[in-house]
Amino acid sequence: MNKKPLILVTNDDGITAPGIRHLISIMKTLGEVVVVAPDRPQSGMGHAITISDNLYCDPVTIDKYSEIKEYSCSGTPADCVKIGTQEILDRQPDLLVSGINHGSNASVNVIYSGTMSAAVEAGIEGIPAIGFSLLDYSMKADFKPTTKFVKRITQQVLEHGLPEGCVLNVNFPVAESSEIKGVKVCRQAKAHWQEQFDKRSNPQGRDYYWLSGEFINNDKGENTDIQALEQNYVSVVPVQFDLTAHRAMETLNNWKLND
Amino acid sequence: MNKKPLILVTNDDGITAPGIRHLISIMKTLGEVVVVAPDRPQSGMGHAITISDNLYCDPVTIDKYSEIKEYSCSGTPADCVKIGTQEILDRQPDLLVSGINHGSNASVNVIYSGTMSAAVEAGIEGIPAIGFSLLDYSMKADFKPTTKFVKRITQQVLEHGLPEGCVLNVNFPVAESSEIKGVKVCRQAKAHWQEQFDKRSNPQGRDYYWLSGEFINNDKGENTDIQALEQNYVSVVPVQFDLTAHRAMETLNNWKLND
Q: Whole-angstrom Cα distance, residue A134 to residue A202?
């Protein structure tokens, strides 16, 4: 098949975010690109889907010199994948890429990540998928150093497909191209957020809170994504969507769950 | 320790939903109960958290004859767990229970589930946690047949704790007590939703969509949650939050990811 691969692009920072614009510019060199992305930032949306409200999904022109078809969607990243594959595209895409996220989706952040929920949604539908994230939350983040790695990882996925039941969670350190040591296949570091709630009063005197927190990595083991990123490697974690803790099943079978 | 266990209760259908009221009535018999639940339905919210908006979390009285402390929160189920453990409770709870959800969280629904995101959030924080769901979406669902099973499963978790790195996803068939055959420890069935988008025009002539779909179970293997539920068993799936597809790592290490 000489046909160019069909690549669906989405993100969770919104269709105009610099990260997705950079990702589109790379994907253009690898295949036929269609963009279906949220009309506004959707960070921290996890795997939310829109079931109690309607969805808008309209063609838009972000770059008037581009011939790529782009659609702006009122829903979440997972909604974008669902509507993209079912309503917008006339055939199943060969690849879904999501990002490049402004900020980390390494370790436990994968659970809260809208970027990765899009990749997982595609994975469930049987589409190879990659979520890309740069550890820089700024809208002025420099995505250039990611280019050759995004391209190489994407080419490998287009060439090999992905092992069944997983998608890729790729994170980039904040570093110059020359400082990045390479790509490491990793496991998700065992970490958590230590929440802090900033309590304030609104002008009417009602208390409210802002969620903030500190990322705590208790995982001192080898081969974690956090460790790789700290050492200026690009981390690649295969992420599964069968959440069954198979090893725990035996333990539970020894419990008195029945009379 | 003779002290009663401290049990945090939440859900995703909102604090007044019949399912959580039933769950509270059972938990009262097992420990000291505190409720922190969304002020409105949050179904399909996945593991969303509120990071770009403030959160309200106010004490409320739903049942004036009850002495249980209850808080109504403007956020998602995961937010409720975060604010409950960090701001409301003065010690770490011994257990988090979420539900009883009006509708299935079996199989791949676990990924979209607000009910289960609360349980996973607690699990990440090191708190044993269970999400309960009944396969009846109606607000008039009959939760009585679940009572003895909810109690027994909860007692087993309080007694044994949970294997590290997992929480429980418990689903109930729609059946009379006498018809329920028992409890089965299961794996997550490999299934997906085949989306259908219902396209309409709003009064101004702009197109919009309603997401709907059909649940497709292609998993003909043994020991799935869907199979157990079809046979009128209560399904218990241990759910992990290390999403690493460990077996895929070797495959990826054979790729040309570096020069």
A: 35
Nearest by Cα to A51 from B48, B210, B208: B210
Contact B110 A187 (CB under 8 A): no
Residues pairing with A139 in the sheet: none
Q: Provide the CATH number for the domain around residue B69.
A: 3.40.1210.10
Please tell me which residue of chain A has the smallest CA distance to B223: A249
Mean pLDDT by 10 residues, chain A (259 residues): 87 96 98 97 83 91 91 96 96 97 96 95 97 94 97 97 97 96 97 92 93 92 97 98 96 93
CA distance to partner chain B, nearest, from residue A32 (Å): 23
Q: Is A86 on the interface with B (CB under 8 A)?
A: yes
Size of interface A-B (CB pairs under 8 A): 240
How much is the pLDDT for B17?
96
Q: Is residue B201 part of a domain?
A: no
- Could you say which residues from 178 to 217 on chain B have a Cβ atom under 8 Å away from some Cβ of chain A? 182-183, 185, 187-188, 190, 192, 195-197, 199-200, 206-211
Residue with tokens 């990749």: A119
Instruction: Please tell me whether A74 is known to bind a ligand.
Output: no
Q: Which residues of A touch B57 (CB under 8 A)?
A: 207, 209
B52–A45 CB contact, under 8 Å: no
- A180 preceded by cis ω (within 30°)? no
- Dihedral of the CA atoms B163, A163, A92, A52 (nearest 10)? 10
Q: Could you tell me if residue A40 is inside a domain? A: yes
Structural domains in chain B (count): 1
Q: What ipTM does this complex have?
A: 0.92
Q: Which of B251, B206, B212 is nearest to A156 (CA)?
A: B251
Task: Give the nearest chain B residue to A79 (CA atoms).
Answer: B211
What digits encode the pLDDT tens for the residues B86-139? 999 999 999 999 999 999 999 999 999 999 999 999 999 999 999 999 999 998
Q: A161 to chain B nearest CA, in Å?
A: 10
A130: in domain: yes
Please state, in angstroms and rounded to a whole number, the distance separating the CA atoms of residues A234 and A228.
7
